[in-house]
Predict the 3D structure of the following.
Amino acid sequence: MKKVIDLRSDTITHPTPEMREAMYRAELGDDGWGDDPTVNRLQELAAERLGKEAALLVPSGTMGNLVSILSQAERGTEIILGDRSHTFTTESGGVSAVGGIHVWALPNDRFGRLDPAQVEAAIRPSGNVHYPRTALICLENTHNRCSGAVLSPEYISTIAALGRRAGVPLHLDGARVFNAAVALEMDPVELVRPFASVTFCLSKGLCCPIGSLICGSAEFIARARFWRQMVGGGMRQAGIIAAAGIVALESMIDRLAEDHEHARMLAEGLAHLPGLTLDLEPIQTNIVIMQVQAMSGEEFAGRLEAEGIRVSRMGPNLVRMVTHYGITRSDMQEAVRAAARILAE
Ligand SMILES: Cc1ncc(COP(=O)(O)O)c(C=O)c1O
């Protein structure tokens, strides 16, 4: 039977044999009472990996961002984020619907950046009753809709400095922050130092079945625990999930470099094909986004599927391919060959 090459997302990965073994053997307790030793160990490890005081396990990245924002922006305040950020585009408007928080979405450039001058201008001056208070600036690293582009530490420092001057803290949607650290070859602790809060996902390139972590100060995490409970994210014997997370943090980070290499191979192969346009520069990690000219994105995706290559669509003519654990160099060659055949027809 022909192998299906599933490039829809890095979330389609299954737990590794080592993770399944760890899940089977996990020591458990009721995390609602703070009694699950495996959850506690994962939270300590996550905090340590990101150089923060404390961490909290939540079921998803969406909940991680929601809880982080609710914990720092009260009802009627405003947050600044990117118009292509996951929180703005794909989290069901949760911060506004659940939190009553006003959103100011600034344009993301092709590298997922916000223009510092625009951020500065968007921070509301205090003392005017017509303005909501700016409570938070949110960045995303790596940037999903901007082809997995990486925000550099220099760029982050610029935004952090203007936030600091105005007394506005930063939140990072770091769903794939370890991809960013690996691409930059830098310690994630340094990369996230300017952020008051960080969400990262275990369930993407790191291969876990479920789970994200929020990291920040002990005081922030205490508030986040309250909001996690309110949105129904408190769990019981969650050590089953946490056990896989510990394996991920201990052994799955360095291999992300392989996913990046595969994505680069794929992107360079596809860029030569007539009928596709790829902006190669922002493709710095495991996400390859292309614009399809030769036919509709729907038709291209459907014809790839018929060839055993599964992809996702990001817009009418935008197709996304994401590399992950289990994907090989020959899969990349096969994907390029299949795309070439379809476009030549
Ligand atoms: C950048 C980013 N943030 C947040 C999320 C949400 O994560 P989850 O699907 O676990 O809710 C995703 C999911 O793809 C993402 O790409």
Summary: The chain has 14 helices and 13 strands. Residues 242 and 278 are 38 Å apart (CA to CA). The two ends are 25 Å apart (CA to CA).
